[in-house]
Specification:
The protein is of the alpha/beta class. Helices cover 46% and strands 15% of the residues. A three-stranded parallel sheet has the order 1-2-3, with helices on both faces. The relative contact order is 0.19.
Length: 123
């Protein structure tokens, strides 16, 4: 969603993506064996990269945003609900999903294909 907003795309869709990166990567211990360590390094190096989506999405004048998350995934729900009430943002819980892999569930139940059809028809 970050890049969709920065590029002024028609749509930007996220599947359980974090809406505020600061707490996600704050306590990453330095280790080449920890995959998030490299993401944290990029965020530290690229200080102008927006880490909080709320002000970025609130400023967007064009892009439609959709944030999917598992309705029973507590951390993902907390991140997603930060976007509620913003213009042009839809926050969509996926019922019965308690893990971070909401897109896998959507592919499995056919709702991902339906989303692609909906987005393609809106272009």
């Amino acid at each position: 969603m970050r890049y969709g907003a920065l590029l002024e795309a028609n749509f930007a869709v996220s599947f359980s993506g974090p809406t505020d990166l600061a707490p996600v990567y704050a306590d990453i211990r330095p280790s080449i064996w920890h995959p998030n360590y490299f993401i944290a390094q990029i965020l530290n190096r690229e200080s102008d990269l927006p880490k909080d989506l709320v002000p970025l999405l609130a400023r967007s004048k064009r892009t439609q945003f959709i944030q999917f998350y598992g309705s029973d995934a507590i951390d993902d729900e907390r991140q997603a609900r930060r976007l509620e009430g913003l213009p042009r943002v839809s926050v969509v819980p996926v019922s019965g999903v308690s893990d971070h892999f909401v897109i896998d569930h959507m592919i499995g139940d056919g709702s991902f294909d339906a989303l692609l059809d909906k987005l393609a028809s809106a272009l």
